[in-house]
Amino acid sequence: xxxxxxxxxxxxxxxxxxxxxxxxxxxxxxxxxxxxxxxxxxxxxxxxxxxxxxxxxxxxxxxxxxxxxxxxxxxxxxxxxxxxxxxxxxxxxxxxxxxxxxxxxxxxxxxxxxxxxxxxxxxxxxxxxxxxxxxxxxxxxxxxxxxxxxxxxxxxxxxxxxxxxxxxxxxxxxxxxxxxxxxxxxxxxxxxxxxxxxxxxxxxxxxxxxxxxxxxxxxxxxxxxxxxxxxxxxxxxxxxxxxxxxxxxxxxxxxxxxxxxxxxxxxxxxxxxxxxxxxxxxxxxxxxxxxxxxxxxxxxxxxxxx
Length: 306
Prior knowledge:
Layout: H1 8-16, E1 41-46, E2 49-54, E3 57-62, H2 74-83, E4 90-95, E5 98-101, E6 106-109, H3 115-124, E7 134-137, H4 142-145, E8 149-150, E9 153-154, E10 160-164, H5 165-172, H6 177-182, E11 190-193, E12 198-200, E13 203-207, E14 216-222, E15 225-231, H7 254-271, E16 275-277, E17 285-291, E18 294-299
Parallel strand pairs: 6-7, 7-10, 10-11, 15-16
Antiparallel strand pairs: 1-2, 2-5, 3-4, 5-6, 8-9, 12-13, 13-14, 14-15, 16-17, 17-18
């Protein structure tokens, strides 16, 4: 009779070729690929306030040096990117409006790309558009005003609106279709403020011009704690922070934008104040450290969860 003894190695190889069996001997199906995903909101505490960042959308763009580091060589841009372990050929943008609940008012900073994106993110966080008391527009680029108006009119029917006076005046005279369609219809409900003016108690406007002529950031303060809603004075956690003098395509006054980056990042680093960056990797919250001639981004972990 022929010897049919199997070696252990042959037995393992044979078993590997068989279908996987689940409970009751049924063949187990492979799990479906789900695609890249992220949560839609992140909520923490700042003193007596609740602060929620919303993921209203993302976008992957090719050739990021057509946007960042326009005044440096391709070799320098590539070396800086590789040192930070990020791709040279593509970048991911995050669009991150912020909700601050002061206990008496629900304040939304910026509105994303479109009404569906912002209302979907709000719903995931447990809010509805008609609960928003104040909408603050940091500046008038389309990815910040895109959710203001839908087919049925204003997305936030019960809100009043706040923006920088210099910002509004610039775009009102610019003949910009998106501004004319989304912002001008809300003008009668809109308050114009300047540096140091209050939105509500605990929220103060900060001049951060350069990205646009009247771009503003906002200081949030409660029970001795502070947080800056930075919007777009720094748009990337490496290319903007580590290299604040690198030119950015969307900065309308590139010299002023670089000066604002250095001033604001230097202040936050010196005073240990965290910030929310509209385009930082979600959930968009981090600290700033001085490093060499620039700055270093330190993502927040559980500091606002305690």
